[in-house]
Amino acid sequence: MTNSNNYCVIMAGGIGSRFWPYSRKSKPKQFLDFFGTGNTLLQQTFDRYSQIVTPENIIVITNAEYEELVKEQLPLLKEGQIILEPTRRNTAPCIAMAAMYIRSIHPDANMIVAPADHLILKEKEFNEAIHKGLEFVAQSPQLLTLGIKPTRPDTGYGYIQIEENKGNEFYKVKTFIEKPQLEFAEVFVESDEFYWNSGIFLWNVNTIIDAFQTLMPEIYSKITSGLDDFASCPNISIDYAIMEKAENVYVQLCNFGWADLGSWASLHEVLPKDKQKNVIIKGNTLLYDCKENIIAMPEGKLAVIQGLEDYLVADTNNVLLICKKDDESTIRRYVNDVQVKLGDEFV
Amino acid sequence: MTNSNNYCVIMAGGIGSRFWPYSRKSKPKQFLDFFGTGNTLLQQTFDRYSQIVTPENIIVITNAEYEELVKEQLPLLKEGQIILEPTRRNTAPCIAMAAMYIRSIHPDANMIVAPADHLILKEKEFNEAIHKGLEFVAQSPQLLTLGIKPTRPDTGYGYIQIEENKGNEFYKVKTFIEKPQLEFAEVFVESDEFYWNSGIFLWNVNTIIDAFQTLMPEIYSKITSGLDDFASCPNISIDYAIMEKAENVYVQLCNFGWADLGSWASLHEVLPKDKQKNVIIKGNTLLYDCKENIIAMPEGKLAVIQGLEDYLVADTNNVLLICKKDDESTIRRYVNDVQVKLGDEFV
């Protein structure tokens, strides 16, 4: 079923600071086994795409400082399967770099771009969708993003609006909506014109490289002149740089039990809950008068908690974080404050 | 200044379960250095009374399972200075046992009975008060308890009412009031007839032994017949067994900066606070929107906490406790539940 012309680029360079204190600069969330399955998010992602493309055609793109972690967790990767970003420049420059690299091997390759921190519950539906998407971009010079039917008015996700829904699988994108306010998100969920932007992209390498050349010549020119210029690329996401500007952007409507594990609150959405809607990640817990919390403890440690509602309690070896779970963006502020006041030891 | 006829009995056999998870069955609070001074509560108590009675006349009474901890923390104690309770029978039987033992050495000794978990801030005033109290009980066959001028309407302490306050130091006790409701405690603080019952007692050994013989013959007879009968003594406190029943009970009015470290909330009362009245015991903390909490962390660990008011956060190596700090009695319930559900490892 695999096609040697199809490639997958797994993006595994993020810091994952919204998952602090579990996610640390020295070992971000994609390198952690959050679900206690014995596999880290990166390993799960690699296994998932190994069923779709030849494993030798999977490329992991990460920050230079995580090279050893990637090699340790994916020991089968060969020399050319790891691309290291010399510095962090968000997703656009690294995707451009990966596309150029793949085209240098296969001038007409199709590529999947996938973050390393997604949860996919329905594997069969997922595989089918990706295969159809690869066929679509092989035949048509479009930039394809996977859209997910929203199941709740999540204000942490980006949304995609399509033209009138005619029951098809592929639509031209009408507009992208960044994290909306709750009242809008509620309308979006009711409508059948709005889909979550999964951040999983499919395209032919020539289509994306053409898009960079037209819409982001400052990145295109740096990348073509070699890695030395990478640091001078603008720091910009693929969404801002290309997807929101290009004319040839399509969405494929999917339904395969998807979640972006972007934050603690997103974990709370997807994990099993007790009767009071508490989510427990490892550890022993005795809860009294507790509702809608997410509690992450080190293996073997006991938490006795009374009287908390809507909190995150994340305990690690040297950091304990307790905060309202719906105020995600503030975790970044805590991490910054910790860095400034206490230095690298705790971030 | 010391008088070889004066003895001090330090009671160090409690489990201190209201200080869980710091206080553990295997190492209760009196064996911990809560204030980071380098001395445990037991060591501080021993040093305090060493300035008042000959150190050889200090006797530590504890449970058999804590023998090694006492020897380790007070290595200068000689053979006869540790009395081990074979089983826990509250304070009355062990005080009777200590009094008999002391009388066997000094038939006319005076003795101080002091819990191992008190905080005394004004040492000079304390020493003067104890010396006067020892003189009082040497001259008069009374049972003396130290009463402390209340500084707040604490509902966790017992109170002593005296007859009309005439500016003297010693008064006959009118009545004992167990932990009162807040509205009563507020009246007590305003009045000058009510004092906190410190639980520090002074008497001549013959006075207390006579009181046992008259008021608690079932303890008197067991103790005189030897340690083998200790387990069959009634499980009763000295307050219920003797102080609240005897006719010859006096109180000495004192003011030496006293606190009974009975619970986390009592620690919150006595320790320095930040501007938002949070008390931090060791560890690094970054607090956001936090008020009136007490936070105890392991040495070197960081706590980042947002949005808690009036909570206790007590983190140890293998247990994290988070609960409302004013609901002390429930900590015992948690400890019981933990014991039942998870066994001895965490209690």
Query: What sequence of helices (H) and strands (E) makes up the elements of chain A?
Result: EHEHEHEEHEEEHEHHHEEHEEEEEEH
Whole-angstrom Rg of chain A: 20 Å
Strand residues, percent of chain A:
25-35%
Note the quaternary state here.
homodimer
Based on secondary structure, the structural category of chain A is alpha/beta
Amino-to-carboxy terminus distance of chain A: 43 Å
Describe this structure as you would to a colleague.
The structure is a homodimer of 347-residue chains. With 347 residues, chain A is of the alpha/beta class. In chain A, 30% of the residues lie in helices and 26% in strands. In chain A, the strands form four sheets. Chain A has a five-stranded mixed β-barrel. A four-stranded mixed beta sheet of chain A has the order 12-14-16-17, covered by helices on one side. Chain A has a two-stranded antiparallel sheet with strand order 5-11. Chain A is globular and about 60 Å long. The A-B interface holds A 21, 284, 286, 288, 297, 300-308, 311, 313, 315, 318-324, 327, 330, 334, 337-338, 341-342, 346 and B 21, 284, 286, 288, 297, 300-308, 311, 313, 315, 318-324, 327, 330, 334, 337-338, 341-342, 346. Strand 15 of chain A pairs parallel with strand 17 (319-324) of chain B, so a sheet runs across the interface.
